[in-house]
Amino acid sequence: VQLQASGGGLVQPGGSLRLSCAVTGSIFSRNAVGWYRQAPGEQRELVAAITTGGSTNYADSVKGRFTISRDNARTTVYLQMNSLKPEDTAAYYCHTRQYGMHYWGKGTQVTVSS
User: Fold this and answer.
1) For 21-58, how does the pLDDT look when each residue is reduced to its tens digit (9 = 90+)?
2) Do 92 and 81 contact (CB within 8 A), yes or no?
3) Sign (positive/negative) of CA torsion 86, 87, 93, 98?
4) What whole-number distance in Å separates Cα of residue 79 and Cα of residue 7?
């Protein structure tokens, strides 16, 4: 199972970015996928997750600003991030689990700064 995250970059406060996580080698439609982030000196935290049935959950800090979605045909999960704040700056990682094994993609850096 491999996860490839992309879409990070530098954006001004109030701006938007869309992250993508392409998942290969898994039974994608049967696995939940989550986005996590980790800022320097901080623990990795869950940002958003989406189940196989499309149910979602979000960290309180991003509710109303971020939207997670999945395209089973493309085996890709997206994280639309709007109204970005400097405190959203972090490396963002996608994650899935299959048969009890955890899989992580390499991080994509999001920097929110003027």
Assistant:
1) 999 987 877 889 999 999 999 999 999 999 999 999 99
2) no
3) negative
4) 9
Q: Is 101 helix (H, G, I), strand (E, B) or coil?
A: strand
Torsion angles phi and psi, residue 102, rounded to 5? -100, 140
Give the tokens for residue 97.
């689990």
Class of residue 21 by CB neighbours under 10 A (exposed 0-12, middle 13-18, buried 19+): buried
CB 38 within 8 A of CB 63: no
Averaged pLDDT for residues 56-69: 98
DSSP 39-92: -TTS--EEEEEE-TT--EEE-GGGTTTEEEEEETTTTEEEEEE-S--GGG-EEE
8 A C-beta contact, residue 112 and residue 9: no
